[in-house]
């Protein structure tokens, strides 16, 4: 095992260790993720239609789930949408209104919201904006957010382009029901 360098960006497990080899065999020889550390200043925030989304851990890094820090100004947030991964949110600052299926609630700091895969949902940051940590059950969102950042103007988003980019990643925007 190595320790973080001065920047604290990488922590890896020695692939020759008995633990690694046993885990690799138990997984049927499939690859597994490596331990890592991300410093607060390391990731670059993506601008997703005015919301700042920082990828803290991508599916490529973890081998499965993804973790994000999301911060947005008052009134920002996605339209109703769904996708093939579970998603959970933990509000850390401000108030965030959530719609999940037919239910609506206002989440304050310390509130946890879980959205099952395929469930139509949305959220809006309240007065003064807000922040939250989100987790997805599988890879997909990080690449979608990167494509939104690269292809969609944050100040005047093209809804047709938003729908098209989301669709490339298995997400559907404007889907009724849940």
In CATH, the architecture of the largest domain is Sandwich
Q: Are there runs of 5+ residues with pLDDT below 50, and where?
A: 1-31
Supply the CATH class of the largest domain.
Mainly Beta
Q: Give the oligomeric state of the chains in this entry, treating copies of one chain as homo and distinct chains as hetero.
A: single chain
Number of strands: 11
CATH domain topology of the largest domain: Jelly Rolls
**Cα shape:** globular
Q: Total number of helical segments? A: 4
Q: Terminal Cα separation, in Å? A: 45 Å
Listing every helix as H and every strand as E from the N terminus to the C terminus, the arrangement reads HEEHEEEEEEEEHHE
Structural class: alpha+beta
The CATH H-level homologous superfamily of the largest domain:
Jelly Rolls
Kindly report the average pLDDT value. 84
**How many structural units, i.e. domains?**
2
